[in-house]
Amino acid sequence: MNRKQNIITTAINEHAIDNNLTAIGVMDLDGLRKTVSDVYDAFPANFFHTFAVKANALVKVLAPLREYGMGAEVASPGELLIALTAGFTAQNIIFDSPAKTLQDLRTCIKTGIALNIDNLQELARIDTLMLEFPDSKSVIGFRVNPQIGGGKIGSTSTATTTSKFGYALLDEDNRQTLIAIYKARPWLNSIHTHTGSQGCELTLMAHGIKVITELAEEINAVIGTQQITRIDIGGGLPVNFSSEVIKPSFKDYAEVLKAQVPLLFTNKYQVKTEFGRAIVAKNGVIITRVEYTKNAGGRHIATTHAGAQILTRTAFLPKSWPIRVTGYSAEGIEKTKDNSAVVTTDVAGPCCFAGDLICSNQQLPKLELNDYVMVHDTGGYYFSNHFDYNSLPRVAVYTVSGEDNDLSMTCIRKAESLEDVLNKM
């Protein structure tokens, strides 16, 4: 019995999934440990690896990752709170949000959490805060967009000419402006880029990192000392969703990176990574029960309880985010062409819109009432439901009524600042 067969059999026999709990997410912690080990084995000792919390913002997943040796990269105040709850310490956290409030920045600089600056207006705020906290232990850098182009998925490409992320290196005199910014601020001792994501080739990712490494060398040369000591190369290693094969591997990426940017593989710089999807995706699955089946227009339709609410990317962008499914009988036996007729199938979710499909027009062993479906490679950006924007609501909901347009708050609780929450811990 293979590992996934054992997982679904155990889930059924121990009633982890049944008529009441009809969709579950499962993380393989042994697999997660091996993945982290593979990351560290692929790179030399001057690399330190952080996990992009947005990829799976569950404390029960983050705590083991911390135990296995990962740091945490957070992109929102709630992710920061979740990382702290999972036991990560300030010195092992990087804050990368492009929309940090003044209070967020104050919290980071006061408590020594590293951060990457997104723009000049944010820099102005930090200038003021560094006067208030001159002894801050925060490692601070600029996020730089090398503007080298995108990959196959536009919505996840972060190094395009007009990307929302980072300081546009090739615009006007921005390169010289950035050098002057570093020269005037001895506390700027890191630099950051995140060139890749799903759909990006390894060579594109490495090229962006090469540009930033050369920029770090130029800045240090102009200053006359090695002021920049850390290069944060982001994450974005693509995941193979078409099979069980892990390709590209972390070793593949390290080899491409070493060929293009050999300087990183010396001890001159500390290098930080921010892998997310590549750490967790293949270590997680969703299991859901088939509630009903029917036929329409020659198509077999299996309606399950996992759809757009937990498979958001696939439901709304199926061509960019196709995922594999495997059917199992009510007893947990895998359905194959040897024990079931193969039919043209849509596997549907429970949401009331037509696009709520896990997969469409697929040749699958026939799914029946009360069967189960395993959705593969969903350990990242699926059942962790990160789009709740981190459990710290900043957006209150109001209704308007009456001739005077009276406002009534209808949200569950008022927004709190990160520091307010931290003070309660």
From TrEMBL:
The gene is lysA_3. This is Diaminopimelate decarboxylase. Gene3D superfamilies: Alanine racemase, Lyase, Ornithine Decarboxylase, Chain A, domain 1. Belongs to the Orn/Lys/Arg decarboxylase class-II family. Its cofactor is pyridoxal 5'-phosphate. Its EC number is 4.1.1.20. One of its GO terms (molecular function) is diaminopimelate decarboxylase activity. Keywords: Lyase, Pyridoxal phosphate. Coiled coil: none annotated. Signal peptide: none annotated. Residues 32-281 form the Orn/DAP/Arg decarboxylase 2 N-terminal domain. It is an enzyme of class 4 (lyase). Residues 282-379 form the Orn/DAP/Arg decarboxylase 2 C-terminal domain. It holds the Pfam family Orn_Arg_deC_N.
